[in-house]
Design brief:
By secondary structure, the chain is α/β, with parallel strands linked by helices. It has six helices and nine strands. The strands form two sheets. Strands 2-1-5-9-8 form a five-stranded mixed beta sheet, with helices on both faces.
Length: 182
């Protein structure tokens, strides 16, 4: 049976993981499970930037995948980067196995404003769906409310919905009728 694995990297609140498991299962119409494992964070840490190289972490994530895993989503609190960007909310392999999201810059506290747990959950869900959308083969969408619309700033995440537009919805489920019928 195919499923999406959610893998915490570092200290992630169990409630956030359970929230993701339930909502991602509904969104992608597929079983979703939480799986714990360890990572070599020192190997992807950049002391000059005080950040973690996202692509290296993504490679570790997809290195140990159990049978039945269709896609794997890493969820971390670490501040992520790739050399051409100052930071990332997440990264994925286009039409590949893995996706990665970070809560680090999704917290209101990062921007000096009071924490809002509900807003954090919504942002994390949007970015998780977005990155898994890439793993399922979707590219960025120009429909502003579509979850596949690109987000450079957290305010842009807040403006989009947790749903795919009609075109992206059709594209993501094309050829996956066996998962849809479950």
């Amino acid at each position: 049976m195919s499923c999406i694995d959610i893998v915490p990297i570092g200290e992630i609140e169990e409630g956030l993981l359970l929230f993701l498991r339930q909502n991602l299962s509904q969104t992608f119409r597929i079983q979703t499970r939480i799986r714990h494992r360890s990572f070599d964070l020192a190997s992807v840490y950049d002391s000059m930037r005080n950040q973690y190289h996202s692509s290296g972490l993504l490679l570790q994530l997809i290195n140990d995948v159990p049978p039945g895993t269709l896609k794997i989503l890493g969820v971390t609190e670490l501040d992520l980067f790739i050399p051409i960007f100052t930071f990332l909310f997440g990264e994925a392999q286009l039409n590949g196995l893995g996706a990665l999201v970070s809560t680090h810059r999704l917290h209101n506290q990062f921007y000096g404003i009071p924490e809002n747990e509900e807003l954090l959950r919504e942002r994390l869900l949007k970015e998780s769906i977005h990155e898994l959308g890439h793993a399922f083969g979707l590219i960025h969408c120009f429909t502003l409310r579509c979850v596949m619309n690109s987000s450079t700033y957290v305010e842009e995440i807040d403006q989009k919905s947790t749903h795919f537009c009609n075109l992206c919805q059709q594209e993501i489920f094309k050829g996956r009728k066996e998962e849809i019928s479950r």
